[in-house]
Design a protein that fits this description.
By secondary structure, this protein is an alpha+beta fold. It contains six helices and 17 strands. A hairpin with a 6-residue loop joins strand 3 and strand 4. Helix 4 crosses helix 6. The longest helix is centred in the N-terminal third of the chain and has 12 residues. It starts with a strand and ends in a 7-residue tail after the last strand.
């Protein structure tokens, strides 16, 4: 049995803010998007956060928000040279190179926090529990966090990013079916309610994404059982049954 990890359904916007008292103080260095002459779309990629682990925190200069598609390969070659990164490091439009700075806006900090569907934050006690349990498929770097407001407080155990790098594909999906434009490589997530995992194309990680889509995070029963046992707050695990569809 697999589960989709996601934020709860909040009763109101005020409730969402109360359970997620965090925001970006700075969003970090982000690569430009590309404009495709074939599909006519601006593409910003998956907004991957996990490259900081490999590429480091270096700020390597300024660039425009959008590049023509033809200029992207040259840009990537120059960026690898500046970072001293090997050719095996592959960039995508919209990737983040450096971690954000986080602003805590409340005194009651949930164990898990969700920032605009872009980044999942976890407290240090969650990081420690994951490590003790031997959970696989993620990295959890500690972020610089500051308190904003008289009542706000950064928890002593710190704020970490949950960066999931385990991977799997859904049944019936492939690189070809999720690629919306063959020229620029822009992707989408077709049939979004079908989360059936093709276990033959799952890397075995406890935490993993589907079809190279960072916004869809899946977990094994080991992760769910750990979170239930520790009573970690502000996270739900939606079961993915044998039937390919659920609400």
């Amino acid at each position: 049995m697999f589960y989709r990890m996601r934020e709860p359904e909040y009763a109101s916007e005020a409730a969402a803010m109360r359970f997620n008292p965090a925001d970006f103080a700075e969003q970090g260095v982000r690569l430009p998007g590309v404009m495709c002459p074939a599909c006519g779309e601006w593409w910003g990629g998956r907004e991957r956060q996990d490259l900081w682990v490999a590429a480091g925190k270096a700020s390597v200069g300024n660039w425009p928000a959008v590049l023509p598609l033809a200029g992207w390969p040259v840009f990537c070659d120059k960026l690898r040279a500046k970072l001293g990164a090997p050719a095996s490091v592959q960039f995508e439009p919209g990737d983040y190179l450096s971690p954000p700075r986080i602003m805590i806006t409340g005194s009651q900090v949930s164990d898990v926090m969700h920032i605009f569907g872009v980044l999942t934050l976890i407290r240090g006690r969650v990081t420690q529990a994951l490590a003790r349990a031997g959970i696989t498929g993620y990295a959890a770097p500690r972020l610089h966090a500051v308190a904003s407001g008289r009542a706000a407080k950064v928890p002593d155990d710190g704020i970490h990013a949950l960066l999931v790098h385990g991977a799997a594909w859904r049944v019936g999906q492939s690189e070809a079916t999720v690629t919306d434009c063959s020229l620029c490589g822009r992707r989408w997530f077709p049939d979004q309610f079908d989360l059936t995992v093709d276990t033959s194309r799952w890397d075995g990680s406890d935490l993993f994404t589907l079809d190279r889509t960072s916004s869809v995070v899946m977990a094994t029963a080991r992760v769910k059982d750990l979170f239930d046992r520790m009573a970690f707050t502000n996270i739900v695990f939606m079961p993915v049954p044998d039937s390919p569809r659920f609400g």
